[in-house]
Inverse folding.
């Protein structure tokens, strides 16, 4: 029982950065913007998040620094793709490379510095309930925040007028524009939201996971977040399933190895990707109806006056 | 070998990674190719420390240049050639995966000398060098067996290649020399560098009952998890005590400086020759970090073992070595396994309750 609880705790921690980053990217893509720079924005968030906390001692300041760093990077992307109508794929890739380089430069000052990790919630009686207590009431703030975030995003996209307009921009920017909606401004805001989320997700790594900064420490998690959005067919509910499934399989495969069940480790390492893709694709197949891909995703929009 | 997705992406940044500027032509120019960022706190960081030691030793007689984040493969060839064209006469390529690119460039530029780390291909202007880290792992195995209450060691591997497998075997043989019933749990990260994943692996091992964490991956993440959970651990490549002041028992430190200094010196006085160097404790190719967080008698034992290995009185792979399937391994090196057997090791020794992945 204790082992099961320990595994669930590890899974929640491993899934949270993916969920936060993917939530932001989902909103961005729903507005019709494909920002492949998630990895770059995440690693910037990691560098600036650790820097902020290291300088001030406050986890919240660190998290904010990470969000601002991600947002600033997304502004560069927005300037290029929305302002200058540059190709989004190329710009996003460049943003990742830029972010990795710049984060190394920023992080050089505090490579090897340690901080105290984000405290975990502790409510005297509920947290101490055996099995389940720590899972429900003993997480760090980011875990609760990530769940609140995805609920809020789902509500926003499907229950508010602004969310409907945002989706309209992603599905048909010409019509949205013709109806008088400021397509570029909406996309700008969605891109900035995506940047802030990616930055926060990156900051989660040094603030709550491994309390130090090393260049390249996101190790490809931004790309996984991007893939999750696609395989979740741009639906928030499935994104949660995808992120937790990925986290769960990646932790379970480690436990399976430790227990020595004899399946080649190379296959086990591939398992999280395989399992997530298969489950999410199966879910999409089961659902009747049209594609949920934002129809204008990745296409440049230049408003004619 | 030490490959990573990030390294591949970041290699595109190559041009910006060139440090130092061309100047006086009479200085010997020495180039270095690094796999990771110099701030990785591990593998690349240790090579960078050695480069700094070289600079300190020879001062303005030489000029050094390094390229960091160079991906293994075709990119590396371009990077090495770039250093040649910039006038470097001695070039260190510091990862296994640079082997073929280095050889290719070496054939093209016979007047430039190359030094390749951890590989096995040589040419008249290309030397190889590596360290016998398995010696250190044997000592770590002994310490682990003494310090573990549960008798269960947790081992985080990178990739199931001979270097890592021989490290696991040396650890187990060391541990068995103290406690024949010691158990080891092995988790492969299938990555040299992925701090959150290394942390997850350490958590999984501890959750499964291991109380000593050993690693053959590059970041201090596992050390930090051990510290968080109040367990003991060994560092890797670098001094990692900062991440586990109450946890680090010792760490294998890659100390390339003496070798680099000797090779630059040879280049300066014209005595550089192609050679294969596989040094251990006896030549200070690596060192052990101070033995900490252990009682005095364990420390004494570790120091005695270290002295015995240094003096050549003790070989971690002394015969008979019994493989996992119960067969005794042929003893090609007299009273111990020979270098070829260690360099190509692809089996576990008896006592490892796991299978080599993919076998």
């Amino acid at each position: 029982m204790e082992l099961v609880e320990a595994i669930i705790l590890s899974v929640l921690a491993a899934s949270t950065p993916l969920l936060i980053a993917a939530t932001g990217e989902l909103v961005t893509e729903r507005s019709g913007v494909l920002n492949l720079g998630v990895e770059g924005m995440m690693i910037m968030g990691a560098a600036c998040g650790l820097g902020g906390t290291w300088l001030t001692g406050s986890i919240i300041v660190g998290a904010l620094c990470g969000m601002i760093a991600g947002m600033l990077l997304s502004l560069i992307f927005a300037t290029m793709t929305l302002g200058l109508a540059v190709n989004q794929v190329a710009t996003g890739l460049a943003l990742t490379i830029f972010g990795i380089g710049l984060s190394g430069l920023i992080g050089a000052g505090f490579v090897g510095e340690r901080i105290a990790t984000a405290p975990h919630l502790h409510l005297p009686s509920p947290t101490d309930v055996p099995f389940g207590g720590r899972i429900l009431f003993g997480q760090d703030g980011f875990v609760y925040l990530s769940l609140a975030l995805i609920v809020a995003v789902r509500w926003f996209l499907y229950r508010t007028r602004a969310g409907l307009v945002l989706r309209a921009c992603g599905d048909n920017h010409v019509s949205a524009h013709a109806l008088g909606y400021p397509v570029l401004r909406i996309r700008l805001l969605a891109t900035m939201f995506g940047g802030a989320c990616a930055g926060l997700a990156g900051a989660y790594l040094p603030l709550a996971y491994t309390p130090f900064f090393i260049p390249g420490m996101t190790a490809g998690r931004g790309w996984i977040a991007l893939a999750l959005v696609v395989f979740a067919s741009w639906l928030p509910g499935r994104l949660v399933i995808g992120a937790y499934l990925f986290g769960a399989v990646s932790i379970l495969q480690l436990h399976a190895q430790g227990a020595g069940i004899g399946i080649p480790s190379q296959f086990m390492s591939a398992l999280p990707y395989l399992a997530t893709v298969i489950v999410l694709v199966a879910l999409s197949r089961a659902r009747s109806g049209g594609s949920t891909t934002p129809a204008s995703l990745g296409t440049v929009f230049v408003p004619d006056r | 070998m030490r490959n990573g997705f990030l390294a591949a992406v970041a290699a595109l940044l190559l041009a910006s990674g060139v440090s130092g500027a061309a100047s006086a032509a009479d200085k010997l120019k020495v180039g270095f190719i690094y796999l990771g960022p110099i701030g990785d706190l591990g593998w690349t960081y240790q090579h960078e420390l050695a480069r700094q030691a070289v600079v300190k030793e020879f001062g303005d007689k030489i000029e050094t240049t390094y390229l960091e984040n160079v991906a293994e493969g075709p990119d590396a060839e371009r990077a090495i050639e770039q250093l040649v064209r910039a006038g470097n006469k001695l070039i260190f390529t510091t990862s296994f995966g640079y082997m073929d690119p280095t050889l290719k460039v070496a054939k093209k530029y016979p007047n430039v000398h190359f030094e390749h780390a951890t590989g096995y291909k040589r040419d008249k202007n290309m030397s190889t060098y590596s360290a016998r880290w398995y010696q250190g792992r044997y000592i770590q195995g002994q310490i682990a067996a003494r310090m573990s209450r549960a008798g269960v060691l947790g081992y985080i591997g990178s990739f199931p290649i001979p270097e890592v497998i021989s490290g696991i075997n040396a650890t187990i043989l060391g541990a068995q020399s103290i406690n024949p019933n010691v158990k080891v749990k092995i988790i492969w990260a299938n990555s040299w560098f992925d701090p959150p994943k290394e942390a997850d692996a350490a958590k999984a091992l501890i959750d499964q009952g291991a109380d000593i964490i050993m690693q053959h991956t590059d970041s201090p993440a596992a050390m930090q998890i051990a510290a968080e959970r109040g367990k003991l651990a060994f560092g890797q490549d670098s001094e990692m005590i900062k991440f586990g002041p109450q946890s680090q028992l010792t760490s294998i430190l890659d100390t390339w400086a003496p070798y680099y200094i000797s090779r630059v010196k040879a280049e300066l006085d014209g005595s550089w020759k192609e050679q294969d160097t596989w040094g251990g404790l006896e030549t200070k190719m690596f060192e052990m970090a101070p033995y900490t967080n252990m009682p005095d008698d364990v420390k004494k034992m570790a120091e005695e073992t270290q002295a015995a290995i240094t003096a050549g009185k003790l070989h971690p792979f002394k015969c008979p070595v019994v493989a996992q399937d119960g067969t005794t391994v042929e003893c090609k090196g007299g009273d111990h396994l020979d270098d070829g057997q260690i360099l190509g090791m692809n089996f576990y020794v008896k006592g490892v309750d796991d299978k080599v992945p993919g076998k």
